[in-house]
Automatic annotation (TrEMBL):
Signal sequence segment: none
Residue ranges, compositional bias (Low complexity): 37-46
Region annotated Disordered, chain positions: 1-48, 120-148
Name of this protein: DUF881 domain-containing protein
Taxonomy, superkingdom: Bacteria
Gene3D superfamilies hit by this protein: Protein of unknown function DUF881 (3.30.70.1880)
InterPro entries: DUF881
Pfam families to which the protein is assigned, alphabetical: DUF881
Comp. bias (Basic and acidic residues): 1-12, 120-129, 139-148
Organism: Streptomyces griseoluteus
Similarity-based family: Belongs to the UPF0749 family.
């Protein structure tokens, strides 16, 4: 019996295939695709040329208010220069085409105009000098007037005064000093160059008078008591010797048993003032 034949149990013969076909291999699973790499959100910027960067910097323009004003001023200046150049060019063109007689006439007119302007300039310069001189004279006149007013105010007793001078003090314990003795002292001081005097707080002026009243002395009706204190502004080197001359004020007062002391000072203050009084009858003779 052949190896390829088998005998079944039921006795039937069955022919088996000589060789079974080879079994096909099982299919392999397809490989999964690799995950895609994430794409960057920002794309690379293209490289710009120098010209493109310059255009980007200049446009759109970003001007401040000051830059805009400067730009407008420069534009106006340029426009004015252009108009002036164009005007000069037109004038030059007109002069190029002018005749000789016209050119001579134009030059004569320019000379005449230049001369008129020069004369006008000289006239204005002279007027300016006259005004300046007049202003200087007016200022000097005002200064002199103010100085004169100050001097007259010192003499009239309407303003205070300060300066070098002397202080004379008369002690009268016996009450023997009379008004005429004090008036003699005032006259002697004036003759020696006294410029401002006050006695016990009363300003002595041109019309000051001394009088005796109830055993004391009155100056312009103002009663004063001893000691009598004279504050005198003037040159001390002249005032003191004038009081101490033989037979003068000091010796006359000492004969009446009064004590007199004279002190020099670099600063004497005469601050007693008098009210200015208008004359009743006298008028200025100047016109």
């Amino acid at each position: 019996m052949s190896d390829q034949e088998e005998r079944p149990e039921n006795g039937l013969r069955k022919k088996l295939p000589a060789e079974l076909p080879p079994r096909a291999p099982a299919p392999r699973p397809a490989p999964e695709p690799a995950p895609a790499e994430p794409v960057s959100e920002q794309a690379p910027q293209p490289q710009l040329t120098g010209r493109q960067r310059l255009i980007d910097g200049l446009w759109p323009p970003r001007l401040t208010r000051a830059q805009l004003i400067v730009a407008l001023l420069l534009f106006g200046l340029g426009f004015g220069l252009a108009v002036q150049v164009a005007s000069n060019s037109d004038g030059d063109s007109a002069l190029r085409g002018a005749r000789q007689e016209d050119l001579v006439r134009i030059l004569d007119e320019l000379d005449d105009r230049t001369q008129r302007l020069e004369d006008e300039k000289q006239g204005l310069e002279k007027q300016r000098q006259e005004l300046q001189s007049s202003s200087d004279q007016a200022a000097e006149a005002r200064r002199q007037t103010a100085e004169k007013e100050r001097q007259l105010g010192i003499l009239a007793g309407t303003v205070g005064a300060t300066g070098p001078g002397i202080t004379m003090t008369v002690q009268d314990t016996k009450g023997a000093v009379e008004s005429d003795m004090l008036l003699d002292a005032i006259q002697e001081l004036r003759a020696a160059g006294a410029e401002a005097i006050q006695v016990n707080g009363v300003r002595v002026v041109a019309n000051t008078y001394f009088s005796d009243t109830d055993g004391s002395v009155a100056v312009d009706g103002n009663k004063i008591n001893a000691p009598y204190r004279f504050q005198v502004i003037g040159k001390p080197q002249d005032l003191e010797p004038a009081l101490n001359i033989p037979g003068g004020v000091v010796q006359s007062l000492e004969k009446e048993q009064a004590t007199v002391s004279v002190e020099r000072s670099d600063k004497i203050v005469v601050d007693a003032l008098r009210q200015a009084k208008l004359p009743d009858y006298a008028r200025s003779s100047s016109r």
